[in-house]
Amino acid sequence: MSPQRRLLIAVLLALALPRFAAAQVANDFFQQNCSTCHTIGGGRLVGPDLKDAVQQKDREWLEHFIQDPEAVLNSGDPYALQLKKDANGIVMPKMPGVTPQMAEELLNMIEVQSKLPKSSLAGVTVSEQPFTANDVLTGREIFLGKHKLSQGGPPCVSCHTLGSIGGLGGGRLGPDLTLVYKRLGGRKSLGAWLTAPATPTMQSVFRNHSLQSAEILPLLAVFEDSSQQSQPANANSQIKFSLAGIAGALLGLAFMGWVWRGRIRTVRRALVSGAQRGAA
Predict the structure, then answer these.
(1) Percentage of residues in the chain with pLDDT exceeding 90?
(2) Regarding predicted confidence, which is higher, 156 or 205?
(3) How many Å apart are CA 150 and CA 121, to the nearest integer?
(4) Which one of 47, 67, 193, 239 has the fewest beta carbons within 10 angstroms of its own beta carbon?
(5) What is the domain class of 137-229 according to CATH?
(6) CA-to-CA distance for 45 and 218, rounded, in angstroms?
(7) DSSP 101-169
(8) Among candidate residues 20, 30, 193, 51, the one with its CA nearest the CA of residue 98
């Protein structure tokens, strides 16, 4: 190979590598933050399929929306309002790290992926076979933590309520999940969300403890079952929890009173005994 040809190849690589690196960063960002609600060529999830999105809306609008969706919605933009309506009222969050440059790179990546016969970001495949009663039972055990997650993640009940589990309902750190199956649009959308949770809290918890498909399907089963029952965890659960706390506090106080009374009797008995010995 001639020196001139080697020089040409080196120059082309020097020009191509930054673009390749930027595309990979955008691809990784999409998988971690966007694939929960969007596919590229895989159909609608919570949000629209982004295949050919750059041809459907001008880039300036898209870049602005990607950086701050709520601001565009608050401006009364009719296209953004329609997107919200189509998503059952779910608003796309403002993602940390979406700079103007990142927004541009995401659109470049979407444009390239849209031209492929099969995008690598077409989304996960979720079984469409009807769930069985055993699937629901397994999902319930996973939710409650009776069946430990294989990657060591915490059970759902530690942060979330579910109307169909009864009792105290569950934790209050996260939202009630009774109707999440309906709210997110069914099996495929919720399955994608569980595969790559997009909220900051869920990301921090499950980044190194991802749910496996053998765990996601039973969870989908229990969420579908809960949505069909349509019994959200309500104030009754909070009342039960509060009453249980009050009862526990009263029992604790009663126990401490019993211990203290016994201590007083012991001290008094020693004083009386000492006084009697002195008198003798």
Answers:
(1) 46
(2) 156
(3) 26
(4) 239
(5) mainly alpha
(6) 20
(7) HHHHHHHHHHHHHHTSSS-TTS------SPPPHHHHHHHHHHHHTSS--TT-PPPGGGT-B-GGG-TT-
(8) 30
Quote the pLDDT of residue 198. Answer: 74
Beta bridge partners of 170: 161
d(CA 82, CA 80): 5
- Does domain 3-114 fall under CATH 1.10.760.10? My reply is yes
| Residue 27 DSSP SS3 | helix
- Per the DSSP assignment, residues forming a β-bridge with 161 are 170
Contact 160, 171 (CB under 8 A): yes
Write 56-65 long-range contacts (CB < 8 A, 24+): 59/107, 62/103, 62/107, 63/100, 63/103, 63/104, 63/107, 65/92
Q: How far, in Å, CA of 163 to CA of 178, rounded?
A: 5
The tens digit of pLDDT for each residue in 147-172 reads 999 999 999 999 999 887 765 567 88
For residue 184, with 0-12 CB atoms within 10 Å meaning exposed, 13-18 middle and 19 or more buried, which class applies?
buried
Amino acid at 138: T
Write out the two tokens for 127.
Answer: 């079984």
As given in the structure block, the two tokens for residue 194 are 């569980």
